[in-house]
Design a protein that fits this description.
28% of the residues lie in helices and 23% in strands. By secondary structure, the protein is of the alpha+beta class. It folds into two domains: 88 residues, no CATH class; 118 residues, no CATH class. The strands form two sheets. It has a six-stranded antiparallel beta sheet. The longest helix is centred in the middle third of the chain and has 15 residues.
Length: 243
């Protein structure tokens, strides 16, 4: 009793601006040319959360739902601005497995004690271990079982592990080193100045080549953050930071 809108979201402790945006927004779900208002999906988009549906229609078999979203407020004043967006969605239990990396990144703590350092390269390893239910042998077995998908599998896992542990993908440095080596490069970074750390995905072993702020190799580390190979002093595993 007394609810003025459905779904009611203020009780979730959300910012009042989100509440105001909801009142002045409309989300339309498009299906085979038909348009239908999707109030719940709009809330999921505004709050950046997972939408959940009963498995009652073919549209709910997808893990992402496309919406046409009209946001009618700008600088505190009503203003219509329509754009296409997607919302994370689960209509079947197996969909949750696909959303696991996204959910783990969403729940990462953001404090100084959880920042990457040379002493603790993967400070949130307990979270990233959940990507494989704590069993990295399954990941290794997958690489052996599907050799044609090895690069794609390593690329996807390296991205998830790095981002969960506070690293960001550096496209410029990745592209530079890919051109110089003429092989695939995926490089992430964290920290500032002399504390900067670079993780370069190793597509042979499925691990990280770790480099310091100068790009000098410090060793190979697996996705649990354990060193598996010592520093390579030959310079072969160093990375170039500038062209």
């Amino acid at each position: 009793m007394g609810l003025t809108q459905s779904p009611y979201i203020k009780s979730a402790g959300l910012d009042e601006k989100v509440e105001e945006a909801y009142i002045l927004m409309k989300a339309i779900c498009l299906e085979n040319g038909d348009a239908e208002e999707a109030e719940g999906l709009g809330i999921a988009y505004l709050t950046g959360t997972l939408s959940v549906s009963f498995d009652s229609h073919d549209r709910w078999t997808r893990t992402e739902i496309p919406l046409v979203y009209t946001f009618q407020i700008e600088n505190g004043k009503p203003h219509a601005d329509t754009k296409k967006v997607t919302v994370k969605h689960a209509g079947k239990p197996e969909h949750l497995k696909e959303h696991r990396p996204w959910a783990l990144k969403l729940g990462c703590p953001d404090s100084e004690s959880w920042k990457p350092s040379l002493e603790k390269l993967l400070p949130r390893v307990k979270l990233s271990d959940m990507l494989v239910d704590g069993d990295w042998n399954k990941f290794r077995d997958k690489l052996k079982k599907y050799p044609n998908e090895k690069n794609t599998t390593i690329q996807e896992m390296a991205k998830h592990v790095a981002e969960i542990n506070g690293y960001k993908y550096n496209q410029e440095i990745s592209t530079l080193n890919q051109k110089l080596s003429k092989s695939m490069r995926l490089i992430f970074e964290a920290g500032k100045g002399n504390d900067k750390i670079y993780l370069s995905a190793d597509f042979e072993t499925g691990a990280f080549e770790v480099c310091d702020y100068r790009g000098n190799h410090l060793g190979e580390y697996n996705f649990k953050g354990k060193r598996t190979k010592p520093p390579d002093r030959s310079g072969k595993h160093n990375i170039r930071l500038k062209g």
